[in-house]
Structures are given as structure tokens and as C-alpha cells.
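name: query_chain
kind: protein
chains: 1
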Amino acid sequence: MGTKEEKIRDLFIDMAVTLGESFGLNRAVCQIYALLYLSSHPLTPAEIGRALQMSKGNVSINMRTLQQWNAVRKVWRKGYARALYKANEDIEEIVFDRLKVGLARRMGRVSEALDEIRTVAKESEKKGNMRVGELGRKIASIEQLAQKVNSLIQNLDYLKHLAK
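structure:
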């Protein structure tokens, strides 16, 4: 790879890392995906490690994450014993899937917390320790927002279809 190609590759990887980290993604995951996305052919973990100056262990751990996200896949080349990896180039699919999974996980936590808050508030009200009135209205407001976000999650596939 020539110097200009390396410069372009490095700038692209830096951009992917900056974007990914802004969404809370691991730096190495972003670097590996960007490298594979730009690569014209599948790469071995050793090649990835050399290109990114990363240990094989680090490549391996982050490669499993990318495989779970369906962002990369293992490919085989005839007569080649080592595993090779290729990027899923449908970035839109990956982003929408990660968005859906991330929102659903977060909303699950919110739902659990709201259930616990409701339970504790009802127990306190029964014991006469507090009046839930204003707190109940605020909890209901958060529950309505949670319902809207859950509806958005359910409709993400439709929104993805509209975006095409």
C-alpha cells in the first residue's frame, strides 16, 4: 500500500474511531471494522494486528464482538488454513441493529427501575409514610416517555425501510 493510500486509510480509521467513541463504542472495535471495511480482501487477525499495531489477543476479543453484531464474518479461502475476516458492508443494517439493541437494553433497565419505584412508593403510601400524588404523576410521565421509546424501537425496521 502506498503512502497516500495509507494516509487515506488512517484518516478513515480515525474518523470511524471518533464517530464510534461518540456513541460509546470501543476504540479497537471501530479500528478493526474500519480497516476491514476498507480492505479489498479478507484479512487474518495477524494482518489486522500488524496494520493497527494491536495484539492478537486484542484483535481476537474485539473480533468476537464484531461477529456478534454481524459487522464482520469469517470467510475461508481454499488451501488456506487460517481464518480470514471480511466486513459486512451494509453499515445501515449494523447501525439500525445496534440502535435497536441498545435502546431495548436501556429501556429494559428503565422499566425495571420504574417497577421498583412504584413498588416502594405504594408500600410507603400504605404505611402512611408519604403521599404519592405528585411523585405518581411524575412517574406516569416517565412511563409515557418509555412507552413512546418502546414504540420507536418496535418501528425501527419500518423507519429503516423508509430511509432507503
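note: Strands lie at 72-75, 84-87.
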